[in-house]
Every structure is written in structure tokens, then in C-alpha cells.
Specification:
This protein has strands spanning 3-7, 10-12, 18-25, 33-39, 46-51, 58-60, 68-73, 78-83, 92-99, 111-112, 116-120. It is an all-beta fold and 122 residues long. A hairpin with a 4-residue loop joins strand 7 (68-73) and strand 8.
């Protein structure tokens, strides 16, 4: 089966950290740029971060710059999103998605994960 599975979400206090993982099964991520999206309650889904298929380029939305770091380990077929200094506004379901291109972009996804919930609250 071809799928992406997110993990690492949970409840964290403001200022805390989480690391999300996105693991692929049934295919290799080597040829895919990987994108993290999130959808907060009552809001539209938005792009968060992207990493090129080679891991040599990244993109971050302004709201997470300096706090989040995207990385990948193609040998493990996994992409990570390190989230530091979390804020209540970061509360959302986080999704990873794969697009079979080298470059970053927040459209034309070929595969989607089912999401992992991140709740930032005291």
C-alpha cells in the first residue's frame, strides 16, 4: 500500500516542543518534495513548510520561521518537522503530503497522510 503516516502529535504547553514524523510506506520518498500542512479548527488548511526531494532547499511560512525546522532522512523514508516555541495558534491537525517533483510547492500533492493532532494549551 502507498501511504504516508504522521506521528508525534499530542498535547503540549505553550513554549514547548514537539517533533512530528512523516513515514512513507509502499514507495520511496527520494523523488518527492514533502510538504507539511495544518488545519486549525474553523480555518482553512494552510501550508506550513516544505523540503525538496534532495533535502537541499526548504520553505517556511512566516508564522513559523525561526521556530519550526523541516528535515528528511531518505534512508529511513521519513520526514520530520521539529516544532519549538509552540504557541496556542499552532494548534491544528498537521498533515504531510508528497509531490513527485524536486521543488517545493503547496499544490499538486500525490499522497496525503491522515494527520496528527497538535494541541498547544495550558
Amino acid at each position: 500500500q502507498l501511504q504516508l503516516v504522521e506521528s508525534g502529535g499530542g498535547l503540549v504547553q505553550p513554549g514547548g516542543s514537539l517533533r512530528l514524523s512523516c513515514a512513507a510506506s509502499g514507495f520511496t520518498l527520494d523523488y518527492y518534495a514533502i510538504v507539511w500542512f495544518r488545519q486549525a479548527p474553523g480555518k482553512e488548511r494552510e501550508g506550513v513548510s516544505c523540503i525538496t526531494s534532495r533535502g537541499d532547499g526548504t520553505n517556511y511560512q512566516n508564522s513559523v520561521k525561526g521556530r519550526f525546522t523541516i528535515s528528511r532522512d531518505n534512508a529511513k523514508n521519513t520526514v520530520f518537522l521539529q516544532m519549538n516555541s509552540l504557541k496556542p495558534e499552532d494548534t491544528a491537525v498537521y498533515y504531510c503530503a508528497a509531490r513527485r517533483t524536486y521543488s517545493c510547492g503547496y499544490y499538486a500533492m500525490d499522497y496525503w497522510g491522515k494527520g496528527t493532532l497538535v494541541t498547544v494549551s495550558s
